[in-house]
Design brief:
Layout (H helix, E strand, L loop, with lengths): L4 H5 L7 H15 L8 H17 L2 H12 L13 E3 L6 E3 L10 H32 L3
Antiparallel strand pairs: 1-2
Amino acid sequence: MQPDHYEVLGVPPDADGAALRGAYLTLMRANHPDLRPGDAGAAAVARRANAAYDVLGDPVRRAAYDRRRARPGPDPRPTPGPQWVTDPLSGAPRPRATAYGSGYSADRDAYARAFSAATARFLVAVMLVGTLLLLVLAPR
């Protein structure tokens, strides 16, 4: 579980940019690895403070973080990428094969099916037009 960046810096969620920067600098002055060499605890605090200020110091990333933080429960969006299955022959994990062999999401498979159907309709239309042209323009 990811730590709460506001708790790491010790500021309330409605803190402005100056308060965030001040809290970050205070933590870094007290726990910077160059000032406390060999102190693993101070290095860990400095890493967490860097990560927190990296997110909260940027207004766009902070807004996205606040939206994720306000949403209860796990992230409802599906994880991207293939679903892994065990290969029955080798026993090694591999991406799940789909109808079109992409091994990726259902959206990609639906796109592949729609593209194939559109291509087939286009080819049939070209063949019909070509046949009609041959019949009309053919010498008698």
